[in-house]
Every structure is written in structure tokens, then in C-alpha cells.
């Protein structure tokens, strides 16, 4: 009887850990330095599609790269869209514009955006944040 309960408890922890990991997105930072390069998006994946966008558009949100598709190319349809990214530990959030792609299965935020939701410094310490994101209107 007791061992059955122990097994159920173990199973519950196991399932909870899977659900927990699946809901979170591995998020790192990259020094795009959008302001320092005067919001010039040349060289980014979305430059082909969004280089004619006016300065106001390019500087409205900090930049991000999208790679939450496990190896599949992002495609142009996500270029220019916005996501709200929440630090799962602190609850802080930031809205960024997708202008680049990446391959690590998560997200890459411009350094200022990463720091904006890293209130407890764990992201800097660990080199990544676990986040939850959703697409939002820009
Ligand atoms: C996002 O952060 C802002 C403050 O920057 C806060 O007002 C808002 O409630 C947050 N939204 C969510 C969904 O956490």
C-alpha cells in the first residue's frame, strides 16, 4: 500500500516536471545594440522583408530572434510581429519585435530587453531565463 502511494507521488512529480519544462521557453540575450546601430536592421534575418520600414517602426520595440520551432526555419511570416515575454520566476514582462531568427529552440532577446525582465539577476548569473511568451499586437 505504502509503496503504491510512493509510486503515485513519484509519477506525479515526473509528470509535473515535464509539463513545467514544456511550458517554458529557453531565452538568451544578444547585444543587437539597436540604438547604437541607429536601428539599422541590415544583416538580420528580417532585413529582406522589413528594411523599408520607417525608423519609428524599427525603434518602437527592442529586438528579438525567434527560434522556438526546434530546427525548422522561422519563415518570413513572423518578421515584424511582437511577442510579450514573461520571466517565469519574477513575473516581469517585456514586449519585443521579432526581426531575426535563431536555431536554439528558444528566444533571443536584445540585451536591454533581457535585462528588463531579469530583476533578480538570475538570468545574468545563469546565462538564460525560462520564459513564457505570447504573440501580441505591436
Ligand atoms: C507586464 O508588465 C507591465 C509593467 O511593465 C505590467 O503593468 C503588466 O501588468 C504586465 N503584464 C503581464 C501580463 O504580466
User: What is the strand tally?
Assistant: 6
Class by alpha and beta content: alpha/beta
Q: State the separation between the terminal residues, measured CA to CA.
A: 56 Å
How many H/I helical runs?
A: 5
In the sheet with the most strands, the strands line up as 1-5-2-4-3-6
Protein name: Barwin domain-containing protein
GO biological process, one term: defense response to fungus
GO molecular function: RNA nuclease activity
Keywords: Disulfide bond, Signal
Structure description:
This protein is α/β, with parallel strands linked by helices and 138 residues long. 30% of the residues lie in helices and 28% in strands. A hairpin with a 5-residue loop joins strand 3 (82-87) and strand 4 (93-101). It is globular, with a radius of gyration of 18 Å. Residues 86, 93 line the site of 2-acetamido-2-deoxy-beta-D-glucopyranose.
Report a brief summary of the structure:
This protein has about 140 residues and is of the alpha/beta class. The protein is about 30% helix and about 30% strand.
Write the topology of this structure.
Elements: H1 2-23, E1 25-30, H2 47-50, H3 55-59, E2 62-66, E3 82-87, E4 93-101, E5 107-110, H4 111-116, H5 122-126, E6 129-136
Parallel strand pairs: 1-5, 2-4
Antiparallel strand pairs: 1-6, 2-5, 3-4, 3-6
The chain binds 2-acetamido-2-deoxy-beta-D-glucopyranose.
